[in-house]
Amino acid sequence: MKAYDCKLIRKEEIAPGIFDFVIEAPEIAAATKPGQFLHIDCGPSSFLRRPISICDAEDGMVRFIFQVKGEGTQSLSKFNVGDTINVMGPLGHGFEIKGRRPVIIGGGIGVFPLYKLAKQTGGTVFLGFRDKSLVVMEDEFERVSDLVIVGTDNGSYGYDGYVADAMDGYLSRSDCDMIYACGPKPMLKTVKAIAERRKIPCQLSLEQRMGCGIGACLVCTCETTHEGTDKHMRVCKTGPVFYSTEVTLND
Fold it and tell me: Phi and psi (nearest 5°) for 42?
């Protein structure tokens, strides 16, 4: 996989510790599908690249949003407009666009990889955050979706509680033929259970620690429902998107 030196065109801190970057990357933008990710060199203070999902890609520009969580993302957040960032991508297996009545659900930083998907599919979108101070991209999703429902775990904004519960209530009164989800594992487990109980096809984008990002190091394997040598698959290469019936979410 080729690495590109990309100029940082835009930088904005959209919530405390959450940065919105746009880089100039024509080849990556032309090849990107919803759900794929970048493997980013965060600078000399970080030995390993960091996998960060692509939020959007068009007109030669690639947008990614990340939360500062450790040394790598802290270093990345120090880049300024005009700086060059070395990026590999697009990597991974993204979402398969299927169905005419989709539901999209994201939690926390799992919201960001779903924006390009929503632009292509429309449908109903559920966005979940811990607190009102962390609610981002609501207006952007509203511009590309039929309906957007935002919830907060503590009830400080929108739906009071977990958005997976709000989605379950919505599905009791509305048709849906595909669910797309990205977020923390507890949320994905709930979405998986709801989708399978209701017999709705469901695609899950998994968040997993990665090393090389290209399938060589085996750091990011996940347990699947397959047998034999396919029991554990590499999230960076076979995923990060899997059908809910393919993964156990046990590990």
Answer: -90, 5
Token pair, residue 233, equals 């698959």
Query: SS3 for 77?
Result: coil
Helix (H, G, I), strand (E, B) or coil at 193: helix
Residue 182 gets the label, from left (phi > 0), alpha (psi -120 to 50) or beta, of beta
Q: Which positions of the chain have pLDDT values less than 50?
A: 212, 217
User: How many residues appear in the chain?
Assistant: 251
> Which amino acid, residue 55?
C
Q: Could you give the CA distance from residue 24 to residue 10 in angstroms, rounded to a whole number? A: 9
Question: What pLDDT is recorded for position 95?
Answer: 97
DSSP letter (8 states) at residue 224: B
pTM of the model: 0.92
What's the sign of the alpha-carbon dihedral 49, 141, 105, 127? positive
Name residue, tokens 């290209």.
214
Supply the DSSP string of 80-110, one letter for each residue: -TT-EEEEEEEESB------SSEEEEEEGGG
Taken in order of first residue, the domains within the chain and their CATH numbers are: 3-91 (2.40.30.10), 102-246 (3.40.50.80)
Residue 232 one-letter amino acid: H
Residues pairing with 10 in the sheet: 22
- Structure-derived torsion over alpha carbons of residues 111, 113, 114, 118, reported in degrees to the nearest 10: 140
| CA–CA distance, 106 with 128 (Å, rounded to integer) | 6
CA distance 196 to 58: 34
What are the C-alpha distances in Å from 15 to residues 20, 44, 47, 68, 232? 9, 26, 27, 11, 36
